[in-house]
TrEMBL record:
This is Ribosome-binding factor A. One of its GO terms (biological process) is maturation of SSU-rRNA. It comes from Celeribacter baekdonensis B30. It is found in: Cytoplasm. It comes from the Bacteria. Residues 121-145 are annotated as: Disordered. PROSITE patterns: RBFA. InterPro entries: KH_dom-like_a/b, RbfA, RbfA_dom_sf, Ribosome-bd_factorA_CS.
Amino acid sequence: MAKRSHSGGPSGSHRTLRIGEAIRRRLSEMLARGEIHDPDLTMMSITVGEVRVGSDLRVATAYILPLGGKDADAALEALRRNKGEIRHQVGKALGIKHTPEMRFALDDTFDRMDETRRIFSDERVQRDIQKGDTPDDTPDGDEEE
């Protein structure tokens, strides 16, 4: 089975990855410089962690996180309210014929990292790691003798 990437293609086409990163950089600049004409957005510090572009280049989803994770819903609402202006400015900066529709979602990368750390710090998991037990250690599900 082909490995799927964040860009939606079988392994993530170079073009979708390149466009996603260009959109991420431009959106980050716009937010940092207060170029979006919305007082709610100019008062927030928002990080754009990643932009995933669909394989057909029609939709780009920006994964964002406000500083400290505070007011995440307000940040999403403000970005969604201004998606037309954002799309226009991104398209102008990138010089591409068809700018993808902009969508916004919360970046849960840090939450997932925290959960992974929590799992690895569990006493039972640490004990298994120390013993070197893995599912592959016992062939065909037989117990070791």
